[in-house]
Amino acid sequence: MLNVALILFAIAALGGATMAVLHFRGRAQPPALLATLHGLLAASGLVALLVAVVRDGLSGLPAIALALMLVAALGGFGLLSFHIRGRTQPGGLIVGHGMLAVAGFLVLLSAALALR
After folding, report:
1. Where are the domains of the chain?
2. Which among 11, 29, 41, 101 could bridge 72 via Cys, Cβ 3.0 to 4.6 Å?
3. What is the C-alpha separation between 9 and 11, in angstroms, rounded?
4. What is the pLDDT averaged over residues 26-40?
C-alpha cells in the first residue's frame, strides 16, 4: 500500500508543481480540472497511506509521513477555499503546502525503501 500511496502522491505532485508554476508566473487561478485531479489524487494517496499505517500497524517513518501529508492536506483545503471564492491564493500558503507535501513524500519514500 505504501507503493500505491507513493505513486498517487507523485502524480499529484506533478499537478501541484504545474499549478505553482502557473501561479508564480501570474495566472490568478489554476485550471479547475488540474486542481480537481490534484486534489483527488492526493486524497487517494492519503487514504492509501492511512490504510497502510493502520492495517499494517506501521509506525516510525510511515506515521511521520502520514502526519506531514495530513498537515499538507489542511493547507490544500485552505487553497481550495481561496479557489472556490475566486480569490488569489497566497503565495506563502502555496509554498508551505508544497514544502510539507514534498517533505512527507520524501519521508514516505525513505520508509518504502527501508521496508524493502
Report:
1. 2-114
2. 101
3. 5
4. 90
